[in-house]
Design goal:
With about 180 residues, this protein is mainly α. The protein has 2 domains: about 50 residues; about 100 residues. The radius of gyration is 20 Å and the shape is globular.
Amino acid sequence: MKKASRFMPKYEPRRASKLALFALLPIVVAVFIYQPWYLLVFVGLVSCIMAWGAIEQSKVERHFQQLSKARCGLSICEFARAFDLKVVDTWVIRAVYEQLQAALPTEEKVPIKATDSLFDTLMLDEDDLELSLIEEIAQRTNRSLEGYESNPYYGKVTTAKNLVLFFNHQSYASPRG
């Protein structure tokens, strides 16, 4: 008997290498010692970027607060009802729902709808989708990413529903218990 999706393991991120930190440290020290005015330019640029980010983040927070208020009372149950549960794996539905919520650029817990655009409504970056979100969902669902080019949803993942259907068409990496 198949295990219920609520027992699916959480995403386990891989640890970053400490080697990268040690490789950058001598460069930063050298710039600080030999070219201190570069440090001033760097600090100025970082300050400008942080100020711009704070302004943009307040717009993003307002968007998600409004979205959350409009969807008050919705849960994963409404998301799952958009799929034929005889055809679509419930583990895929739960993993996509939970990982999309975790990937949102806000702390607000926004209920996800199957029709949500990943880029417009959920404001996800395409690079985040390709570099981290896909890997997280694949790990949680035990789906392989091999042969993704032959998936009928390859290149068509623009909504939460298409993301679920994409993973539903991927084969298992190994048998799950």
